[in-house]
Design a protein that fits this description.
This protein is α/β, with parallel strands linked by helices. It has a single domain, classed as Rossmann fold, CATH 3.40.50. It has seven helices and eight strands, in the order E-H-E-H-E-E-H-E-E-H-E-H-E-H-H. Strands 1, 2, 3, 4, 5, 6, 7 and 8 form an eight-stranded mixed sheet that branches. The protein is globular.
């Protein structure tokens, strides 16, 4: 059974760790093209410049982790944003996603109180760092695009570390500084391992959803 969205879309992820579980589920030849941009707005803009014109692509899904601002969104939930009249929207909802709104940010929102402030000031349901840029580029070219994100940390959750302090100019982790922080705060190691396991499960949830949507749409939903 073919995907209700059609074949050969472009699927964006920020991180290889987000994309890897989905890649493992893809048949050969794959029904889509996967692009990993790197984390953050700067890397996303750079990746878009290296691609062929987007108008040659039938549609785009921009995927990955998201931090919840809406306290009703549970860990691992798939949240999507597409225009009401967009043909992508209903198949995404029919596959088990929840509709929501995303706020584009240029830093990781690490603390629960900051999430609450953003929820109050913007009304957005979740935060992400790349999809807003991709979606705007698609709009400029009249290309259908939807955001498909998995909730990797809930609204009431403060991350085990403020990862912003370890990011380099390109959005990558400065491992020397990161290791130094763990040496100074060894009690954080247990929390980080738990968070890493949480991210792996969330990436699998996202991969399963995309597989049901694009690879095996006939599977029970």
């Amino acid at each position: 059974m073919p995907s209700p969205l059609g074949a050969d879309p472009l699927i964006f992820f920020a991180l290889e760790s987000e994309a890897r579980p989905f890649r493992r589920l893809l048949p050969s030849p794959p029904p889509c093209r996967v692009v990993v941009t790197g984390m953050g707005p700067q890397n996303t803009r750079r990746a878009l410049l290296t691609l062929q014109p987007l108008h040659q692509i039938p549609y785009v899904l921009t995927c990955g982790f998201a931090g919840a601002l809406n306290p009703s969104f549970p860990l691992g939930a798939i949240v999507v944003e597409a225009d009401e009249n967009d043909a992508l929207r209903q198949p995404l909802l029919d596959t088990g996603a929840t509709a929501g709104s995303f706020l584009l940010v240029d830093r990781i929102v690490a603390r629960a109180e900051h999430k609450q402030q953003l929820r109050t000031s913007t009304g957005a349901d979740a935060v992400e760092m790349e999809s807003g840029i991709i979606r705007e580029a698609c709009r400029q070219q009249g290309l259908p695009c939807a955001i498909v994100r998995v909730i990797s940390d809930i609204a009431a959750e403060t991350l085990p570390l403020d990862f912003n302090q370890f990011l380099n100019r390109n959005g990558g982790i400065q491992f020397v500084r990161f290791a130094g922080a763990l040496i100074r705060h060894p009690a954080k190691v247990r929390d980080l391992l738990k968070f890493q396991s949480q991210l792996r499960q969330c990436a699998r949830n996202l991969a399963d959803f995309l597989s049901r949507l694009l690879v095996n749409p006939s599977l029970d939903r």
